[in-house]
UniProtKB/TrEMBL annotation:
<dbReference type="GO" id="GO:0030134">
    <property type="term" value="C:COPII-coated ER to Golgi transport vesicle"/>
</dbReference>
<keyword id="KW-0931">ER-Golgi transport</keyword>
<dbReference type="GO" id="GO:0006888">
    <property type="term" value="P:endoplasmic reticulum to Golgi vesicle-mediated transport"/>
</dbReference>
<comment type="similarity">
    <text>Belongs to the EMP24/GP25L family.</text>
</comment>
<dbReference type="Pfam" id="PF01105">
    <property type="entry name" value="EMP24_GP25L"/>
</dbReference>
<dbReference type="InterPro" id="IPR015720">
    <property type="entry name" value="Emp24-like"/>
</dbReference>
<keyword id="KW-0812">Transmembrane</keyword>
<feature type="domain" description="GOLD">
    <location>
        <begin position="29"/>
        <end position="117"/>
    </location>
</feature>
<dbReference type="GO" id="GO:0005783">
    <property type="term" value="C:endoplasmic reticulum"/>
</dbReference>
<dbReference type="GO" id="GO:0006621">
    <property type="term" value="P:protein retention in ER lumen"/>
</dbReference>
<keyword id="KW-0732">Signal</keyword>
<protein>
    <submittedName>
        <fullName>LADA_0G03400g1_1</fullName>
    </submittedName>
</protein>
<dbReference type="InterPro" id="IPR009038">
    <property type="entry name" value="GOLD_dom"/>
</dbReference>
<keyword id="KW-0813">Transport</keyword>
<dbReference type="GO" id="GO:0016050">
    <property type="term" value="P:vesicle organization"/>
</dbReference>
<dbReference type="GO" id="GO:0016020">
    <property type="term" value="C:membrane"/>
</dbReference>
<keyword id="KW-1133">Transmembrane helix</keyword>
Amino acid sequence: MKLLISSIVGLVWLTLCSAHNVLLPPYGQRCFYETLNKKDELAVSYQFGDRALESTEQLKGDFVVYGPHNHEVIKAFRQVSHGDVRVTVPYDGKYEYCFSNENSGSTTKDVTFNIEGIVYVDWNDPKSDTLDGAVKQLARLTRELKNEQSYIVIRERTHRNTAESTNDRVKWWSVFQLTVVVANSLFQIYYLRRFFEVTSYV
């Protein structure tokens, strides 16, 4: 029992995972930092969205991971709506990852993201094939499932807004068509009455 408790406590300390939601400034960016050791894994899953509830657009942005030496670009994704990025860091240092809105003046664009810092474990080590290792793997799979569910929720909101907007347009187009049909019918009745009207002269 003590082994199980110590394994869970160790897992909490070794694997860091948190979810965030930030508003991106117009033509600006938001950056975050992680201090990692060689062979640690930085995993970020993200989704660009719109805080305006009536929005039907799938917004896009840039995501870039910078290394600690000379601010070199480790990975970059331009004009994407979502992503799931995993980077195994080549050396120790302070890594920076940024979400960019530099190509857009949107004031309601935000990004929902999950960040994980996974400490490197040598699986060739005989001690790694333990309950602790199994718990870590299970926790990682659970986090991936949770991240996927968060992504699906945001996509569902965007698609629902699109469907409601389309239904609204169809409704008003139907009203317009009905108005045209009624007006045409009244005009035909009036024209036929005038056509068959008998004019009498005294």
